[in-house]
Amino acid sequence: MQFILVTGLSGAGKSEAIHAFEDLGFFCVDNLPPALIPKFAELCLQSQGRITRVALVCDIRGGLFFQNLFEALKELEQLSIHYQILFLEASDDVLVRRFKETRRRHPLVGEEGTVLEGIRKERKVLDELRGRATVILDTSHLTGRELRSEIAERYGGEPNRRMVTTLVSFGYKHGIPLDSDLVLDVRFLPNPHYVESLKQLTGNDARVEEYVLRWPAAQRFLQEAERFLSFLVPHYVQEGKSHLVVGVGCTGGQHRSVVIANRLADFLRSQGYPVVVEHRELSETQGKE
C-alpha cells in the first residue's frame, strides 16, 4: 500500500497538496488525529485491495493529539506499512503574506501573538518530524497549479498520471486565461443566458447542462474535442510536460463553458488522467474537478 503522510508548516500548501492527491486517485483524509492513523491503516489493509493508495494530512492543528504522531508511526512500522512523509514548508515572509491574504490566525498564537511568532514556534515543534521526512518540498515560489504538478510528478505512478490537465472555463468578455496552452471557443452554442429560467443559474446546475447538451452541435463538438484530446494529451505526456492548461470559453463564463469543461474533465478522468477544473468566473475550483 502506498501510504503518504502530508505534514509541514501552516500555510505551506497542505490543503492544495491533499487535493492533488485526490486527483491522483488517493484515498485522502485531512487533519486525522495521529492516534487514529494505525486504526485507519488497519481498515485499509482489510479492504481486500480496494484501498491501495492513501494520503493523510496530519499537522499542528491536532493540538495535544499531535504529540502522539511518532507513536503512531511506530505502530505503522509494526503493521509492515512502508509510509512516506511529505513535509511542506516555505520561507517566513511568504507564510506571513499568505496568512495576511487569507486573514487567518496562526494555530499556535492567541489574539495577542503575531503570525511570525507562530511560524517560528511551529518550526521548532516540527523540527524532528522534518528530519524524518522522505521528501521536503519548499512551496515559497510555487503556485497552486505548480504544486499539484510537482505532486503528480512524484506520486503519480504510471506515466499517464504524471501530467495534470487543468480545464479552465472562462468568459471572453473578461479575457483569455494567460497561461492557457489550448483554448476552445464554445460561443457558437445556444446561450442559456437568454432563457429566463436558466439565466441566473450556472453550468454546474443539471438544468443548464441538459439545455446546453441537448443540441446536436454540442454533442458533435464534445465528440470532436474528446477525439482531439485523446490524440494530443498522450503526446504531451510522452514529451515530458508536467502541466497542461486548456481554456474553454463562452461569452460570460457562466453557462456553456462550465458545462463543456466539466464534461471534458469527466472524459479525461475516464482515460486515467489527473484533472483539475477551475471555473474562473464563478470563483470556484473543484479538486476532483
From TrEMBL:
Keywords: ATP-binding, GTP-binding, Nucleotide-binding. It holds the Pfam family PapZ_C. GTP binds at D59, I60, R61, G62. One of its GO terms (molecular function) is GTP binding. ATP binds at G8, L9, S10, G11, A12, G13, K14, S15. Residues 1-158 form the RapZ-like N-terminal domain. The keyword Chaperone does not apply. Residues 165-282 form the RapZ C-terminal domain. HAMAP family: RapZ_like. This is GlmZ(SRNA)-inactivating NTPase.
